[in-house]
Amino acid sequence: MPRHNNNNPSPSATFRQELTLNPTPRSQSIVDSIYSQSQCSESSDSTAASSIDDAPVRRPLRPGVYVPTLTFFKADTEDLDLEIICRHAVRLANAGVAGLTTQGSNGEAVHLSHQERKLVTKATRNALDAAGFHSFPIIVGCGSQSTRETIELCREAMTSGGDYALVLPPSYYKAMYKPDSLVEFFGEVADASPIPILIYNYPGAVSGIDIDSDVIVELAKHPNIVGCKLTCGNTGKLGRIASSVDAASPCEDGSGFMCMGGSADFTLQTLVVGGSGVICGLGNVAPKACVKVVDLYKAGKMAEAKKLQAIVAQGDWAAISGGIVGTKSALETYYGYGGYARRPLPRPTEADEAKFAESFKELVELEKSLS
């Protein structure tokens, strides 16, 4: 069967200049084109769907590091900043990650309209293609509270250029679910989705729902369910699933099923138990460091991988504790872009910015050394 997250340091001027995202005529033309398509786009949606149906692109997932990209907004209006969204995506691709995820938790999907979700994915796909990353896969977050809307989001993901859908279980009516409700939900979504799906297990985001390994292994038999992301942090569960489905890993192709950790702080642990890699928000700040852990493991350099994992884990704690606000603040400090999250998420104070900068300092210095 095919199977398919004190003091403000001053980085050197050279480092900051290299990483600041300056607009180019090419990227600006991409943004202008996307904005021209965004105005009341029933017709453009149908056109996009037609073109994708006529010439489907198969972009396989491969083991490694995937980054759930941040969504960037203009500071004064909170409108999408498509220029930065495009250039950030290309920066990550150039760093060697295996793929991107739009509309994830780090992407503030819950703050976006359906139209904005489509714009972000479309902008990301167009920017990657323009930069030569035609085979670079995009996973799109498509979780919703109803089966119907989840399927709708999967279809919109496909028409916007997404290759796979990452689906959270619904949770609002958790108390009324029957034992088989979630199995039926994922089965129905997989049946109807035009793109393959990955199961997203993130108890903290869904009222504590924690899908066990037996359920995921059973769902993995569906030909349109090709992977899972475990942000629960349970590496025992991850190991059981990886073994049961013969998951792909950096060292073996296996069945092709992608069994992914959900945070950079257990990248090495994920790989040791047979997992496929991670989908980690820390990659927004330090993609090369995250990729290096995987590369060292694949090369059999476990002692070096362990030392690097410790630094990555410390940096990931800064990302976890600071959330989207802290991650964007770190990008602003060290890379010259990042901005703010949409309200009601708070804007950091000067003291917050200094704290975030110090927390990420060691990791960014490591990232600089890998440049």
Total of helices: 13
Assign the structural class, choosing from mainly alpha, mainly beta, alpha/beta, alpha+beta, or little secondary structure: alpha/beta
- Approximate shape: globular
Strand content: 5-15%
Q: Report the major sheet.
A: 8 strands, parallel, barrel
Average pLDDT rating: 88
Give the distance, in angstroms, between the N- and C-terminal Cα atoms. 41 Å
Strand order of the largest sheet: 1-2-3-4-5-6-7-8
The total count of strands amounts to 8
* Low-confidence sequence ranges: 1-24, 33-55
Order of helices and strands: HHHEHEHEHEHEHEHEHEHHH
Helix content: 40-55%
Radius of gyration, taken over Cα atoms and rounded to an integer in Å: 20 Å
Task: Describe the overall structure.
This protein has 371 residues and is an alpha/beta fold. Helices cover 48% and strands 9% of the residues. The protein is built from 13 helices and eight strands. An eight-stranded parallel β-barrel has the order 1-2-3-4-5-6-7-8, surrounded by six helices. The radius of gyration is 20 Å and the shape is globular. Residues 1-24 and 33-55 have low confidence and may be disordered.
Question: Short summary of the structure?
Answer:
The protein has 371 residues and is of the alpha/beta class. Helix content is 48%, strand content 9%. α4 packs across α5 (114-130).
Q: What keyword list fits this structure?
A:
single chain; alpha/beta; eight-stranded parallel beta barrel; globular; 371 residues
